[in-house]
């Protein structure tokens, strides 16, 4: 999977929980998925539209009522849903608020090996310095990222590494997104 597609998928907070739920066997009906994910109706609808636009979900023709449609994964959607399910396997319920933030998963993906700030930014060309800094700080506060200083370098530079849950998630994601 291309990193740009992955960034696009994770830009909607509920996309991965929806995909993971579908992969794990939750029925593709709106009410059932809403209950399984715990998303608000508005956020859920936006995420579903986004997943359809990306070609990961489609309406199941011939099934469901027009006001209560049923959805199914496309072939590409099945691949991404399997990845989302593997992420859910290594994360806890308390981890999902941080995982639903726009840049958390792409940044963790780029941390499949220890990296400097500029190296992470090069791998994620659409991220701003501020967004990257905030993502790293929020993951560091959660103990998913460890920041160390390379004092041998002149000037000294920070090195970021994915650790604990962040490291496990990074190792799950990196091979499928073209890193590792």
Automatic annotation (TrEMBL):
Record InterPro entries: HTH_HxlR (IPR002577), WH-like_DNA-bd_sf (IPR036388), WH_DNA-bd_sf (IPR036390)
Keywords from the named record: DNA-binding, Transcription, Transcription regulation
Domain HTH hxlR-type: 90-180
Protein name per UniProt: Winged helix-turn-helix transcriptional regulator
Lineage: Bacteria, Pseudomonadati, Pseudomonadota, Alphaproteobacteria, Rhodobacterales
């Amino acid at each position: 999977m291309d990193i740009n597609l992955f960034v696009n998928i994770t830009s909607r907070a509920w996309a991965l929980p929806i995909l993971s739920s579908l992969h794990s066997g939750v029925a593709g009906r709106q009410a059932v998925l809403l209950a399984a994910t715990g998303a608000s109706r508005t956020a859920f609808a936006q995420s579903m539209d986004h997943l359809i636009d990306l070609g990961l979900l489609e309406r199941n023709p011939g099934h469901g009522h027009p006001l209560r449609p049923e959805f199914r994964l496309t072939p590409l959607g099945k691949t991404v849903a399997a990845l989302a399910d593997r992420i859910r396997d290594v994360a806890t319920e308390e981890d999902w608020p941080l995982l639903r933030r726009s840049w958390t998963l792409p940044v963790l993906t780029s941390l499949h090996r220890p990296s400097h700030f500029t190296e992470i930014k090069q791998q994620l060309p659409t991220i701003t310095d501020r967004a990257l800094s905030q993502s790293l700080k929020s993951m560091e506060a959660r103990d998913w990222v460890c920041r160390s200083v390379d004092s041998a370098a002149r000037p000294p530079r920070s090195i970021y590494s994915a650790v604990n849950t962040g490291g496990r998630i990074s190792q799950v994601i990196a091979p499928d997104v073209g890193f590792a």
